[in-house]
Structures are given as structure tokens and as C-alpha cells.
Specification:
2 strands; 67% helix
Length: 78
């Protein structure tokens, strides 16, 4: 996956640190910005007509589920 980002010129490996790091290129930042905009637009449509209190409760529940899923993934042997 990471190699494909480098091959597509969306990321580059920065060897100037003790541990090589992957950094987005200008093209990668442009793609990231388009994705952020698309997700924001989708979120507006998904949460339209939902009262603010209900939307806040949904966000809290989804955050808790995401934390639990991340913990499960971290505990899964590779």
C-alpha cells in the first residue's frame, strides 16, 4: 500500500530522520484535501435533519465504537 503511494507520487520517503518517515507530496496533499472535502460534504448530507443533541449522541457512540475497534485490532496478532 505504501509503495503504491510512493509510485503514484502521492508520498515520498523522508530519510533525513533517524527512522525513515513517509510524507505526502504536493500531489498527495491535494488528494487528501479532495478527500477531506468529499467526506465533509457527505457528513453534512448524512447528518441533515438530525437534531443537534441526537447528532452529538451519535458522534459519542461512534467514537466509543471506533476506540474499541482500534483496541481489538491492536490486540490481534499479526
Amino acid at each position: 500500500m505504501l509503495a503504491s503511494l510512493v509510485d503514484a507520487n502521492l508520498a515520498q520517503i523522508d530519510h533525513d530522520t533517524d527512522t525513515p518517515r513517509l510524507r505526502l507530496t504536493d500531489a498527495g496533499h491535494a488528494v487528501q484535501a479532495r478527500i477531506v472535502d468529499a467526506v465533509a460534504d457527505l457528513s453534512v448530507r448524512l447528518y441533515a435533519d438530525i437534531p443537534a443533541d441526537d447528532a452529538s449522541a451519535a458522534a459519542r457512540a461512534l467514537t466509543a465504537v471506533t476506540r474499541r475497534a482500534n483496541a481489538e485490532l491492536a490486540a490481534t496478532p499479526t
